[in-house]
Amino acid sequence: MGTKWPVQTLKYMILAFMTIIISYPILLMINSSFKSKLEIMISPFNLPKSFSLENYRIVWEKVNFSGYIWNSIIVSAVSVFVVIFVSSLAAYYLSRYSFKWNPFVLFFFMIGLMLPMKLAIIPLYLIMRNFHLLNTHFSLIAVYVAGGIPFAVFLFYGFFRTLPKDLEQSARLDGCNDFQVYYKIMLPIMKPPIAIVGIVNLVNVWNDFFYPLIFIKSDELRTIPLGMLTLFGEYDTEWNLLFAGLTISSLPLLIAFIFASRMFIEGLTSGALK
Amino acid sequence: MPELKTVPLAEVSAKPKKKPFNVRKHLAHLFLLPAAILYGTFQLFPLITAVINSFYSWDGFSRDTFIGLQNFVTLFTESPFKETFVNAFKHNWTFFFVNVCTELVTAYILALIIHSRIRGKEFFKTIFFLPKLLSVIVIGFLFSLILNPTSGALNLFLKSVGLDFLAQPWLGSTDTALLTIILINGWAGVGFSMLIFLASLQSIDKEIFEAAKIDGASNFKIIFTITIPMTMNAIMTMTILTFIGCFETFELIYAMQGSSGGPYYSTDVLGTYFYRLAFGSVEGGQSIGLGSAIAVVLFLIIALSTAILMIYFKRKDFER
User: For residues A179 and B10, is the Cβ–Cβ distance under 8 A?
Assistant: First the structure.
């Protein structure tokens, strides 16, 4: 009870100040997305006079955001699913079979945790060009999956090692083959690390701008972050549309975050520390 | 869950009946195969090739002849490459120092506050974390609207409270552009850094603080003699993660200032220089070779700092 009230007041003042600094730009973005172009210029800080979804309708139809969102959903969903699937299989292999080269294989995957992938963009670009994969969703998915594997293998491997082996032994005795043991026994109890890997990769893939910028040329294949570039290029004076576009692209993750904030925070902090 | 992928593997692994043990054991390699192929083809192979490429001369997008370290020599000694490199390299260092002094210091103070006796911890943690969910491109575009010199929210706000003299073209002036971008980068990352510090603070045994208080140590003394030394691991980790992030930085600057780091290259960093050489193709035929050389330089800087981190923690992840 020793804390004096001026100190407490100061603490709350700092927290309140930071809360405003952090949240105000996001609130401003959402708020402005409902306003008309004129309203944004005249009264930028007021609430919108009328709650209109007109900006969203225009962005959705004219600027093809419906297409961008769909592309982002496909690329994210496939990438996240494949990362989880192939990485959990590999981690299962590393933790449950004792081949001589296992330490080497683990090291092989762990190299990827330390190296910055962006620096390999020239060879990646050339690979995609030689395989005629430039300007396809496959090129994005392949890079996201490859980039997600090291962390996922690392996390799943750590998880498998904590599980007792008795569980599988009894399943084997009941006549399960190796894949059935993985599929029926291991997968169902793996939900916590799957959630972490899923969230880390979803946020990365959904928000990534770099690879689409390099790989994707045609407008109808663009994911949301790249679509934003189109929007800002073509409608750079229509601020109401710009704010609506920014809001649309952020809303899916912000809404998911509201429902599972604890999971997101835990997942993303562990995702960065590796 | 699509079952398609599971079927072939299940059939294959059900086969071994004649030579039960060996075949079965070797079929297990199929578990490893998909991840190894994808990771090998689209990550490890390109990374190795990126290094090899820097030793070749290039004609457009095709590899020409082996020229040893010539690309590096050109990059470091010839105009205009040398000047551009040094300019960008300095900005990366500025980025790092300012980011540590602003973002990390703020994050640490916030972590100390939230760790103390305070209400609404969860609320503040959630709010501070929000920017981490936004795409860098959204952050860049959003702030370029907010900082617009004539109709951006910040200058309008400054004018409305009578601080007109502070209003300025934040991103348009060579004096303020880089600093502004670094602060925006800090805005996006402060909540995340705070959570890392907070986790570290929470792992300190509370009795140590109690003992120090009984001995009559002031709060300030406790922070500098106990708290900071005991959270050194987290401080070190965040410093190096920040370092890596600052040397990899590209998207934010691309979104706000374009690929040449305007105005007048005042926000140019190695990431944007690399992008111009590799995909901007203004510097002529040798640019891919020079771009690859920058990639290798960046790669060495980052690998070295990661190695320092690893040694610092004497991590044992790789020994098993």
Answer: yes
